[in-house]
Amino acid sequence: NAGVMQNPRHLVRRRGQEARLRCSPMKGHSHVYWYRQLPEEGLKFMVYLQKENIIDESGMPKERFSAEFPKEGPSILRIQQVVRGDSAAYFCASSPSSGSRYEQYFGPGTRLTVT
Amino acid sequence: AQRVTQPEKLLSVFKGAPVELKCNYSYSGSPELFWYVQYSRQRLQLLLRHISRESIKGFTADLNKGETSFHLKKPFAQEEDSAMYYCALSGLGTDKLIFGTGTRLQVFP
After folding, report:
1. Do B96 and A91 touch (CB under 8 A)?
2. Chain A closest CA to B97's CA: distance in Å?
3. How close is the nearest chain A Cα to the Cα of B99, in Å?
4. Among partner residues B95, B100, B102, which is closest to A98 by beta-carbon distance?
5. pLDDT tens string A10-63
6. A39 touching B (Cβ < 8 Å)
7. Strand, coil or helix: what is B79?
8. pLDDT-derived band of residue A1, with 50, 70 and 90 as boundaries?
């Protein structure tokens, strides 16, 4: 089992461009979480998805950010019209089911730099 | 407000010395508390959780509801313990984790 995969590992975008971050959960996991880590801060929850459903998006900025987890393929975190403040490390985690008793397994992260 | 506080950014000790990484939390309810660790060039991984009441790699953590703390302790630090440690909480019935800002532990030989 290769673990949670994220790509790209590093992404550079100019202000105003779109950023697409991909996350492939561990085999057998149908629950995906996205977290963002700004410099000198801890990871902050963004969104929790199951296949084809957004379960909790309470941490998502109201504008420009969206997430999906289609029936087939990876989960995608999309940031439109990026700004310098979006520069951060974005981590994806997956678990086999819902509930805090199930461990969340983290990917290596995507480091987004907005120039 | 739900919050996890790790007051120390950096903790440096010598090999064999005791280690205590502090974690305090604020949560209106009964949270579950976790410690995650990130070794150099590796992914964030779960170290231990309070409901398991187990010792992992010699580390233990006791939930103190009166002091709202969940400090991580090890009696004798090893060089391979050098890593970034994050305290996190999850609320009852929720799946999201709330993380502290992390403490970097450096263990010198």
Report:
1. no
2. 7
3. 6
4. B95
5. 999 999 999 999 999 999 899 999 999 998 888 999 999 999 999 999 999 999
6. no
7. helix
8. low
